[in-house]
Amino acid sequence: xxxxxxxxxxxxxxxxxxxxxxxxxxxxxxxxxxxxxxxxxxxxxxxxxxxxxxxxxxxxxxxxxxxxxxxxxxxxxxxxxxxxxxxxxxxxxxxxxxxxxxxxxxxxxxxxxxxxxxxxxxxxxxxxxxxxxxxxxxxxxxxxxxxxxxxxxxxxxxxxxxxxxxxxxxxxxxxxxxxxxxxxxxxxxxxxxxxxxxxxxxxxxxxxxxxxxxxxxxxxxxxxxxxxxxxxxxxxxxxxxxxxxxxxxxxxxxxxxxxxxxxxxxxxxxxxxxxxxxxxxxxxxxxxxxxxxxxxxxxxxxxxxxxxxxxxxxxxxxxxxxxxxxxxxxxxxxxxxxxxxxxxxxxxxxxxxxxxxxxxxxxxxxxxxxxxxxxxxxxxxxxxxxxxxxxxxxxxxxxxxxxxxxxxxxxxxxxxxxxxxxxxxxxxxxxxxxxxxxxxxxxxxxxxxxxxxxxxxxxxxxxxxxxxxxxxxxxxxxxxxxxx
Length: 484
Known about the structure:
By secondary structure, the chain is an alpha/beta fold.
């Protein structure tokens, strides 16, 4: 939805307003003076005005409501969702009263960071689950999702689980990682990998990342290995694969297990191999903002089929497969529901199109932002296919101090943008694990200067151009970043 198509200028005739409302089939239009929102008019307001003796050539101001509900541009998603139960449309205003965005039940931002797409067989398959009564963790769609996913990533030993974090936990447990063991993890990542290490009682060892791939720096791994090191978690951050050839070579020489965290990299490939196929185990996430989604959900993969069978037993409360309700060890309830898997099957049917659109999106961003020396664009190294889960730029060091102002500016203009993750080593739960004296300079820089731009498969060329124009305006301002 382009909000400009729902705007009319103060003083235009009722006839103009009515034609706009009919054209957009919205039932409403918004009256602006310059860019400031001064009134709201519905088709009902116009009809009542005509019944009261107004004529179509009279100004829209004569029937518009001058008191209406709005929310500020910095409103939380929770606040927007709560109020959408009462209002069909909520104008979003910046601090100057300018109309910069519009929330509705099917969209919360004018140009969202990411947005799920359910335009395939999702409803049909979910309806099948409800009609047949197979709504929990038993049912054909769980098995079908595992099978089809394995075919896509070329790894048959797949196991559907309730989310990506439990997939990491299950992988570590299944591979025998526990108390007394050390696991190497990149310093720049979402917290799930390091949390999973702590869940099993192991000790995380944080390593800095590569400046350009944002993935774990293989050149730093050797010095982080000790007699207690048992595993490495390689995170393919924002869609660019880690250097798995170097990671696996070092792991094999030191008898270490490797877990690939592919939560953000579905569709990414390294040397013509889909990510997740190199390590001893790998995980994927299907959270609502991922390339395909089941709402919440995940997948864990193993090279060894026997490991997959053990993980399946642990996933299902540790119940013995040959003896119902008999538990040989303590397990977990990490199962995915048939309804969620049904959505996943439908989403997976469109995965090639989704990845193609992500890469198209990145190419257009690259074209619009090429030559701007104050930002680092995401890369795609040789022999790599980057799926660009989030198109993430990094401000150069001399602009890092502007990052938060730029984020605020973008969001004030209806462009949803987000910062990069914080480095793990600075957050309270993990500060005590910086034991090998690393400075984490790269992770610190990427975190301080990183901005993720709208990366939905629904983003249009016009929206990308608008995002880039807004970003460039922020970069070339005098630092005040006024929202006028």
